[in-house]
Amino acid sequence: MNSQRVANEILDKRGARYISRERLPMPGDVASRGKRLVFMPYGNMWKWQRKVIHEIIGPGNRNVFAPMQDIESKALIYQYLTEPDLWNQANARYASSLIMSLVFGRRTKMGDANVDRIIETNNEIMQMFEPGSNLIDSFPFLVNIPLPHSIQPWRWWGDRVYKASLANWNEEFEGLAERQRQGKSVTCFISEFQRLGKDKALDRESMMFLGGTLIEAGSDTTRVALNQLLAGVALFPESKVQARKELDEVCGANAERLPDASDIARLPYVRAVAKEVLRWNISLPEIAHSLIEDDTFEGYNLPVGTNVIWNSWGVHMGASEYKDPDRFWPERFLNEDLDKPIKGHLAFGAGRRICPGWVIASNSLHLLIARVMYCFDFHPIDGHPIPVGKPFEIGVEKPYEVKVTPRSQAHADLIQRECAAAANIV
Ligand code: HEM
To answer: Which of 29, 72, 73, 305 could pair with 25 in a Cys bridge, judged by C-beta atoms 3.0 to 4.6 Å apart?
Structure first.
């Protein structure tokens, strides 16, 4: 699907039909045993898990998790101030720590061993998406042939990733159980899940996959969005000037105080930046939906089982969809849909499989953008042009070079005063 019009017609308006996922035997069956929500076909288990996620981290509970967004964004800007060259690792730490706090109630530092292992297995899952990376996604019938394990190399890889994922998540479950025994646990997705008795409905392995999938789905995406922000502001500094007009009005032109969550309603430009960050030079891949009954669309016959996918780069960077698409220009989102974070782009997908973390993700972005744009300047570095016009690399290495500096001494002092404690992760 090469336009938002068609994607919305199909995925939104006819969403109940386009609700399943493309069958990907390697990441879905072998490496997940059908238990990773992202690859799960439509059915009772998928419906139940989506409902529980909505209940626990949906719009009704946004305030429960707001303190985590507050403390992690403070820790991030403190790291920008004190270790500016490590901005990429700071972004990764922020994203991992936020989602880990949300799911297991545990903050994480740079170089956290289990986070690194989780990122590694997640990268392997992403590699499984790449065309030609494995035989069974091209020839799915192979997965059902009872061949000896020794002649199925795809199973060696898939089984290893499956076992590694479970071992990583088991460590988090054990850690949480220990904190609960010691009376040191904080409210998080899994503790709410247990409090509501939802754990009674799932075997332990499925519960581990549910928690683990949230970690996987919520960390890289947030990190990549942050990388877009820094590049967009560095290349198009007029966005910073506009953002600061409203930020200075609300928080003072001389670093009087940090923006906080209660300011966001008065910061429309910041909310527009969040949408532009998700659109501009989009780097994350899309995931196909699959049709559960026959359909016809504008002359095409689409039988049950057809996979449909939106062309994320083509839509978001296409001149037929957006004026001057290469320009990081948040003003384009200052319209009647500004307060609908999922409208005007497809970065969270669409329809019944739309990202269930979009409320949390949007709130995180709003607070972060307000604080980062209020306090920091970003500049391209001579001899290291920021490569736009194709998606940034989404691996853990720096996708580009950028210079991070505090906006003024007063802003640096403000960060020292208000954020040092948040960066002290024990
Ligand atoms: C900037 C941040 C994020 C972006 C850009 C993003 C984007 C996406 C996209 C494009 C999809 C596929 C949607 C579709 O098929 O229509 C998705 C699915 C998903 N996302 Fe996110 N996401 C983000 C953050 C999060 C967070 C914070 C969480 C968890 C708290 C999360 C959990 C999930 C899950 C569980 C799925 C699978 C849904 C399903 O298959 O039914 N995401 N996300």
So the answer is: 29
So what's the pLDDT on residue 393?
85
Q: Binding-site residues for heme, please?
A: 355
Strand partners, 214: none
- Residue 366 Cβ inside 6 Å of ligand 1? The answer reads no
Taking Cα atoms as reference points, which of 259, 371, 278, 284 lies closest to residue 332? 278
Averaged over 356-360, what is the pLDDT? 94
167-188 pLDDT, tens digit per residue, is 999 999 999 999 999 999 999 9
CA distance 264 to 370: 8
State pLDDT tens for residues 186-210: 999 999 999 999 999 999 999 999 9
State which amino acid sits at residue 117: R
User: Is 38 near ligand 1, meaning CB less than 6 Å away?
Assistant: yes
The alpha carbon dihedral of 349, 350, 354, 355 has a sign of positive
Structure tokens at 306: 């057809």
- Report helix, strand or coil for 117: helix
Atom of ligand 1 nearest to the CA of 214: 29
> ipTM above 0.95?
yes
Q: What is the pTM of this model?
A: 0.95
Nearest to 398 by CA among 414, 412, 384: 384
Residue among 36, 56, 348, 362 whose CB has most ligand 1 atoms within 8 A, to mutate: 348
Any atom of ligand 1 within 6 Å of the Cβ of 225:
yes
